[in-house]
Design brief:
Layout (H helix, E strand, L loop, with lengths): L1 H25 L16 H7 L2 H33 L4 H16 L2 H19 L7 H26 L3 H8 L4 H12 L1 H17 L2 H6 L7 H9 L5 H36 L1
């Protein structure tokens, strides 16, 4: 049984990481051949840094992801706190169910429905460009919000309910109590919700495809347009750099969390 579970685990990790390993390996290929490794070279990394179109798409993707993550984190934090303070169990369950619909809904349904909404509203307002960065941002905030709320709600349940009351008894206003007591307590959930929203927005293709205009192109849309002809290996180089950046951020996050745990243990002792 142990052997079977280990083999199963190895198979899962192989399916997850072998494609990434192949991508990284072919980013160092000396030629444009994507089916055979002809030699190791940094040629495609040089091509990447000399390609303005790729960097414009990357900049658009990062601006969109950061904007969507910040807005959805602020709104999601307020929504999670509001839901937790609801006294009616029926109202709380109803709001939570409505909040979870974007997560359960297929992306293509969300994308098409939001496109129809934006085109309809744009037609009513008489806009010449009905789909733009603003519509894309609204769509990304919409599907990121439920994940932010879902990340913060467990922290709110774990929080001692007497802490905000004690802060108000000591003279804090409700707003001061939130920023000085509640927000630091749930900050772990807020940060994880922000990272989740940033990752989802960075990775999204389907909803972006239906809700963006012709003047704003993200990296997933650019890569999709390349698949109709051929994906150049400089995209492999860019993907490798993104993977390495995420890996470095994960290591830094784990180190910081480990240090914080050690400090909290020492303070308890």
């Amino acid at each position: 049984m142990k052997l079977f579970s280990r083999l199963y685990l190895i198979l899962i990790f192989a399916l997850l990481y072998i494609p990434i390993g192949v991508l990284i390996l072919f980013s160092f290929n000396s030629t444009a051949n994507t089916g055979m490794l002809t030699g190791l070279s940094l040629y495609w990394y040089k091509e990447l840094f000399s390609s303005p179109d790729t960097f414009v798409a990357l900049k658009n993707t990062l601006v969109l992801a950061l904007s969507a993550a910040c807005i959805s984190t602020v709104i999601g934090t307020a929504a999670a706190v509001g839901i937790s303070r609801m006294k009616s169990k029926w109202a709380k369950k109803s709001v939570q169910s409505v909040t979870n619909i974007p997560m359960m809904n297929p992306d293509i349904v969300t994308g098409v429905s939001m496109m129809l909404l934006f085109v309809f509203v744009g037609g009513m307002l008489g806009l010449t460009e009905k789909l733009s960065f603003i519509t894309l941002l609204i769509a990304h905030v919409t599907f990121c919000l439920p994940y932010v709320i879902l990340s913060i709600q467990p922290r709110l349940r774990q929080m001692d309910k007497s802490l905000p009351e004690a802060a108000r008894d000591l003279g804090c206003t409700p707003l001061q109590s939130f920023f000085k007591v509640e927000l630091p307590t749930i900050m772990g959930g807020v940060v994880s919700g922000f990272l989740m929203a940033f990752t989802l927005s960075l990775d999204d293709f389907v909803i972006s495809y239906f809700t963006t205009g012709s003047s704003y192109q993200t990296l997933p849309l650019m890569i999709y347009s390349m698949t109709k002809k051929e994906v150049k290996p400089d995209i492999y180089a860019l993907s490798t750099l993104i993977i390495l950046s995420v890996l470095v951020l994960l290591i830094i996050t784990n180190v910081i969390s480990a240090r914080n745990e050690k400090r909290s243990r020492k303070e308890k002792k």
